[in-house]
Amino acid sequence: MAHMNHETEADTSAKRPMEIASPLGIPMERSGSGTSWLPDAAPMRAIHARAGGWTFMTHGVVFGMYDKQNGPRGVDHLASLNWAMLMATRQTASSKLQFRAMGSAEPWTLGAEGYPLLLQTGETYKGQPLYDRQHPHDLFMELAVVAERAVNDRVGISLYAAPVGEPAIGPVAFPHRPSAMSDPLAPIVHHWQDASHVTFGVLTAGVFTRSLRLEGSIFNGREPDETRTDFDYEGRSLDSYAARLTWNPSANWSLSGSWAYFKSPDAAAPNESMRRAALSVLSAHTFSAGAQLNTTFVFGANKHAFADHLEPSYLAESSLQLGGIHNLFARAEYVRKDAEDLVLGPSGPEGEFDVMALTAGYLVELGGPSPIRAGIGARGSINLLPASLAPAYGSSTPTGFAVYVRLAPQIMSSGHAMGPHAGH
Ligand SMILES: [Cu+2]
């Protein structure tokens, strides 16, 4: 091992002052949610410190939001959405050991019914499926240990064990994607793509090179229940499985493809299993004038055991940050949901519906020396529905908007004085 000494100056490009040796030289910036990869050039919002060979990092965000969704199925709501993560990492050029804890106060700051979001579906409230609402996240979102070891200077192996965490399915989950960081609201394709990011029981093994990672997971396939403060094992074992291949061809790109089998994901339909396929492309580019563009494309499809075809979904989202102050973002989504997903009732239309949501927004970050930055944002959306859904939603183009404040760590960047080891 040429780079055993973690203080070595020869270590890669020393792009950011915090960089230390890591197995195969993979930078911390690449870590997405669970074991997913971001492009290396993705901005990282974190506060960090070092002590005794360990690096401690805090990530997180707090939104205070007023959200109003229009039409007969929309309501308004004032709430806070939030999550925070603590990470302790010890690594050298040959091995890495990391402990993670991530939680959310949403069980209290949002409430069990979640926030209004037209066409959103997934999980339950009072034993009934939620619709036109996004559920709160659990108090325990991730408790995990990650171990990596370089077998030689080109190949490494990894293990991820999580009483609660994210199996190797889909792209980086939306709350952790730089392209979605300025928007508090969930995509309506969440349960077609990345909703498994909170799973109670995950074991993932992987093999990786500097640019490729192949992973296999076994996990508890049941989605979280509506009691958001406990561990949802309910006698289940690691009865579901997934595989994912990720490719980071350069610092600016990350591509992944995954396939998953969920045994009985839905308590309301315990005999029904589900399969999911997902493909994703994430990009991160920095331009000379301090502009930073992050973009995500995702295709995700579910196939329920008793259905003879896929329910597809597509998402494209982008966030442009200018000068560390202005954040412009947009998202376009298409998904096929059925009458049962949307809870249209016995007298409502039957079958499946192709629905779309278009969103645009803006967030301004307030300056200041604090490592935690405040921002003020607004976002508006318009949904495009088939005529058969117009009676239920009052229109075939129902809308929604939200205004909010955001607190989040500022982006760590090169040339930034980031604490005691800045001159490292
Ligand atoms: Cu979620």
Can you put this structure into words, describing what you see?
The protein is mainly β and 424 residues long. The chain has one domain (23-412): Beta Barrel (Porin). The protein contains 3 helices and 21 strands. The strands form 3 sheets. A 16-stranded antiparallel barrel has the order 3-4-5-8-9-10-11-12-13-14-15-16-17-18-19-20. A hairpin with a 6-residue loop joins β15 and β16. The model is unreliable at 1-17 and 414-424 (pLDDT under 50). Bound molecules: copper (II) ion. Copper (II) ion binds at residues 137, 190, 195, 197.
SSE topology sketch:
Layout: E1 44-45, E2 47-51, E3 54-69, E4 76-91, E5 95-103, H1 106-109, E6 115-125, E7 128-134, E8 140-150, E9 156-164, H2 190-193, E10 202-208, E11 212-219, E12 240-247, E13 253-262, E14 274-286, E15 291-304, E16 311-322, E17 326-338, E18 352-365, E19 372-384, H3 390-393, E20 399-409, E21 411-412
Antiparallel strand pairs: 1-21, 2-3, 3-4, 3-20, 4-5, 5-8, 6-7, 8-9, 9-10, 10-11, 11-12, 12-13, 13-14, 14-15, 15-16, 16-17, 17-18, 18-19, 19-20
Keywords:
3% helix, 424 residues, binds copper (II) ion, globular, 16-stranded antiparallel barrel, mainly beta, disordered N terminus
